[in-house]
């Protein structure tokens, strides 16, 4: 569904992604694991069109994304939950969702479906996003991305700073999307969460994709986790 | 005039607020609006009211179109870099001024035609036209406020203002928003100019004063803050007028500049800078 081949990305003259390749399939959760600074966020930004891809290709359902501006990538059905949420803090909850709905012209039914997944937001539609609690903000970032009914969902550390109940909420939502056929690419630092949610895991090191394997195999290879993220499973 | 100043300053503030571009050529859009108003008004002979109406519609449209061109050819290529756009708009300032000098000439021309549009209230010492200007400005200000606060276009503009990158990641075509905002800002200056032209004369250097006053208003009101801009415009416009009449225009400018300096030192976010729209 989404095929990334040999992409190179730079910030100025500094190369951050080096001939990185990946594939994400519909109905599957692909998790990216790697140390801080490995280039995980940059990869998601490259898919999104927020960082220029200098070499290589990104193909989504037969359409080349690597030359498109971010606005067109979003319109083609890629939903994005950025690291640190990046809500429009001055706008209300309802307005943040409205931005998501406008991306691909969805209406209130879509919004109600997203709100049904995160009922706490429904009570706070008129509140400014910047005044929400951290957990509520994370829910809003997810709901905003769901408002464009994505076929590919990019999640950058959506569980950062959340309590366990919220983490399992997010996991439920991701599993629900998976069953609906969405391809999810999840960047996450918590190995336990990754192991419980992923279908496949891709290890990123220094801007390169190393091994990609099924999650069952990862469970049997604590040495890999030790090597790529520095933790025992 | 405070009302007209509010419109001009609002255009400057909008462009800075959403695009982070300091448009030094803003006063020239104002000047162009006035010069074009003179031209449009003189297209129709014998019917000044109609001529004025044509100017009121036509002049902002032409100025807006010109701003669109400037955005595409200049600002977009500079990627809206804050420093580079200052230099570029200084360039635009001189180009527009020279164009006006070449095609319009160095004379200050009284806009004869629209003046007869003046509605005189005989029982009221104040010129009727000025009241019309105040009312028209208020309507435009209100319209811009409704656009920003209540419409989808306004929502898109605000989202772009707060976070350009995330806005793009949600399908917002930021370059179009920027082009639209730049044109809208220029058109506000042009509308203000058309309204003022029956009171002042159209002159190729007339952009300087409104530019300075707009900057003062925008800084005092808080950069990018709509509410602050309007309040500051009314305050500064009125005090400028009063001090100019009773003392001297120079004193008014000195006091306004002092006010700016004090605001910058004691409240750099502007008197209303903390709030938005
Ligand atoms: N805007 C930028 N300008 C310059 N360098 C950047 C920029 N953003 C990221 N980098 C650099 O690119 C490299 C990869 O960053 P990236 O954010 O993709 O890492 P990451 O894997 O997401 O890390 P983390 O786990 O800490 O979020 C880092 O060395 C970082 O310093
Ligand atoms: Mg990251």
Distance between the termini of chain A: 30 Å
Radius of gyration of chain A: 17 Å
Q: What structural class should be given to the helix and strand makeup of chain B? A: mainly alpha
Estimate the helix proportion of chain A, in percent: 25-40%
Helix/strand class of chain A: alpha/beta
Q: How many separate structural domains of chain B? A: 1
Q: How is the main sheet of chain A built?
A: 6 strands, mixed
Question: What would you give as the CATH superfamily of the domain at 1-77 and 152-161 and 182-233 in chain A?
Answer: P-loop containing nucleotide triphosphate hydrolases
Q: Which strand order do you get reading across the main beta sheet of chain A?
A: 6-7-8-3-9-10
Low-confidence stretches of chain B: 113-117
Known CATH architecture of the domain at 1-77 and 152-161 and 182-233 in chain A: 3-Layer(aba) Sandwich
CATH topology of the domain at 1-77 and 152-161 and 182-233 in chain A: Rossmann fold
* Number of helices, counting only DSSP H or I runs of 4 residues or more of chain B: 12
Notes on the protein architecture:
The complex is a heterodimer of chains A (233) and B (277). Chain A has 233 residues and is of the alpha/beta class. Chain A has a domain at 1-77 and 152-161 and 182-233: Rossmann fold (3-Layer(aba) Sandwich). Chain A is built from ten helices and ten strands. Chain A has helices at 40-48, 70-75, 93-104, 108-117, 119-122, 134-146, 164-179, 191-197, 215-219, 222-229, and strands at 2-11, 14-24, 28-33, 53-60, 63-64, 78-81, 152-156, 183-187, 200-205, 208-214. Chain A has a six-stranded mixed sheet with strand order 6-7-8-3-9-10, sandwiched between helices. A four-stranded antiparallel sheet of chain A has the order 2-1-4-5, covered by helices on one side. In chain A, a hairpin with a 2-residue loop joins strand 1 and strand 2. In chain A, helix 3 (93-104) packs parallel to helix 6. The model of chain A has no long low-confidence stretch (mean pLDDT 92). By secondary structure, chain B is mainly alpha-helical. Chain B has one domain (2-204). Chain B has twelve helices and no strands. Chain B starts with a helix and ends in an 11-residue tail after the last helix. Mean pLDDT of chain B is 83; it is low at 113-117. Chain A binds chain B through residues 48-50, 69-75, 80, 82, 86, 88-91, 95, 98-100, 102-104, 144, 148, and chain B through 152, 155-156, 158-159, 162-163, 165-174, 276. The structure holds adenosine-5'-triphosphate (ATP) and magnesium ion.
């Amino acid at each position: 569904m989404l095929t990334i081949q040999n992409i190179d990305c730079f910030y100025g003259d500094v190369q951050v992604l080096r001939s990185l390749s990946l594939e994400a399939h519909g109905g599957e959760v692909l998790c990216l694991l790697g140390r801080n600074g490995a280039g995980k966020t940059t990869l998601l930004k490259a898919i999104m069109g927020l960082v220029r891809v200098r070499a290589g290709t990104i193909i989504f359902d037969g359409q080349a994304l690597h030359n498109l501006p971010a606005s067109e990538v979003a319109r083609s059905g890629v939903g994005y939950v950025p690291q640190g949420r990046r809500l429009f803090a001055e706008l209300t909850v309802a307005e943040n969702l409205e931005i998501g709905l406008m991306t691909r012209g969805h209406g209130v039914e879509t919004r109600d479906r997203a709100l049904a997944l995160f009922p706490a937001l429904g009570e706070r539609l008129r509140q400014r996003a910047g005044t929400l609690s951290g957990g509520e903000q994370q829910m809003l970032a997810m709901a905003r991305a769901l408002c464009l009914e994505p076929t590919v969902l990019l999640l950058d550390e959506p569980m950062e700073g959340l309590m366990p109940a919220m983490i399992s909420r997010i996991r439920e939502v991701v599993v629900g999307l998976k069953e609906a056929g969405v391809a999810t690419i999840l960047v996450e630092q918590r190995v336990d969460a990754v192991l419980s949610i992923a279908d496949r895991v891709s290890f990123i090191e220094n801007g390169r994709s190393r091994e990609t394997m099924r999650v069952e195999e990862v469970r049997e290879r604590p040495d890999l986790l030790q090597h790529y993220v520095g933790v025992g499973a | 005039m405070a009302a007209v100043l509010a419109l001009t300053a609002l255009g400057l503030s909008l462009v800075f607020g959403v695009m982070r571009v300091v448009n030094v050529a803003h006063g020239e859009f104002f000047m162009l609006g006035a010069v074009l108003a003179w031209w449009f008004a003189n297209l129709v002979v014998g019917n000044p009211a109609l001529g004025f109406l044509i100017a009121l519609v036509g002049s902002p449209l032409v100025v807006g179109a010109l701003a669109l061109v400037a955005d595409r050819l200049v600002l977009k290529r500079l990627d809206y870099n804050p420093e580079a756009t200052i230099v570029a708009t200084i360039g635009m300032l001189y180009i527009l001024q020279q164009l006006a000098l070449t095609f319009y000439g160095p004379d200050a021309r009284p806009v004869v035609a629209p003046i007869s549009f003046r509605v005189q209230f005989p029982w009221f010492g104040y010129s009727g036209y000025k009241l019309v200007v105040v009312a028209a400005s208020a309507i435009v200000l209100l319209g811009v406020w409704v656009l920003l606060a209540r419409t989808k276009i306004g929502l898109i503009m605000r989202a772009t203002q707060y976070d350009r990158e995330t806005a793009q990641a949600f399908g917002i075509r930021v370059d179009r928003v920027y082009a639209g905002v730049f044109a809208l800002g220029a058109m506000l200056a042009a509308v203000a100019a058309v309204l003022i032209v029956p009171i002042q004369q159209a002159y190729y250097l007339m952009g300087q004063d409104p530019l300075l006053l707009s900057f003062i208003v925008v800084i005092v009101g808080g950069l990018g803050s709509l509410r602050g801009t309007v309040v500051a415009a009314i305050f500064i416009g009125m005090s400028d007028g009063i001090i100019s009449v009773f003392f001297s225009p120079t004193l008014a400018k000195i006091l306004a500049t002092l006010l700016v300096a004090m605001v910058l030192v004691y409240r750099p976010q502007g008197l209303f800078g903390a709030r938005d729209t």
